[in-house]
Amino acid sequence: MARVKRRLTPSAARRESKKARIARTAEILQRLKEEYPDSRCALVHQSPLELLVATILSAQCTDKRVNMVTPALFARYPTAAAYAEAELAELEEMIRTTGFFRNKARSLKGLGQALVAEHDGEVPSEMAALVKLPGTGRKTANVVLGNAFGIDEGVVVDTHVGRISRLLGLTEEKDPVKVERDLMRVVPQSDWTLWAHLLIDHGRAVCKARRPDCGNCVLADLCPSADLQV
């Protein structure tokens, strides 16, 4: 006979201590690691520059679409200097299918110019320097630091991460910066980068925005928002 797990109620989640929340988060993390053992950045890249460019292109666009565009783009513009010297019309045409292509093209050209002028053409590995680059906010900087440099300086908060973290009762915030702050208090720093990948994978596979599959969710008993079927 299957063991019936007691559901965490919304009121219990609101009352839980920081110590209890940290312990619950650790269990959530462990279960997701077991469920998605190969979880990693979905943007295909071979260098910090390629990841930075791909992340800029991923705004309001799927990773799948970005990965279709970037092979030709990376071949045409292999260095920061190449982006700095790019003709906007050509750059726009190469990234047209990622959406908002005019703004993104300007960001990529400006990015190349800034990297050449201020960083000898290399992508910096410091948050303060990254967020000053065209098209690069804290979320993008976290992606690059965590996945290109192995530096867990923050938590990437995209729509999946924010939504599922709220469903799990780990934050009540909607502003990504505030969500990140709450997550950094309960998720171990060594797992800050991985946390985002795991929640993104879980959001795509099970905890879908339109219809979460709570009955087949490994986190159902730990989630105060779950419609747990027992």
Outline the structure in words.
By secondary structure, the protein is mainly alpha-helical. It is 56% helix and 0% strand. The protein has twelve helices and no strands. Helix 6 (88-95) packs across helix 7 (101-119). The mean pLDDT is 94.
Query: What is the mean pLDDT?
Result: 94
By DSSP, the count of extended strands is 0
The gross shape turns out to be: elongated
Q: Given this structure, which CATH class of the largest domain is correct? A: Mainly Alpha
Low-pLDDT segments, ≥5 res? none
Q: Can you identify the CATH superfamily of the largest domain?
A: Helix-hairpin-Helix base-excision DNA repair enzymes (C-terminal)
SSE topology string: HHHHHHHHHHHH
> Which band does the percent of strand residues land in?
under 5%
Second CATH tier, the architecture of the largest domain: Orthogonal Bundle
| Biggest sheet statistics | none
And the CATH topology of the largest domain?
A: Endonuclease Iii, domain 2
Share in helix: 55-70%
Total domain modules: 2
Global Rg: 20 Å
The assigned structural class equals: mainly alpha
Through-space gap between termini: 12 Å
Number of helices: 12
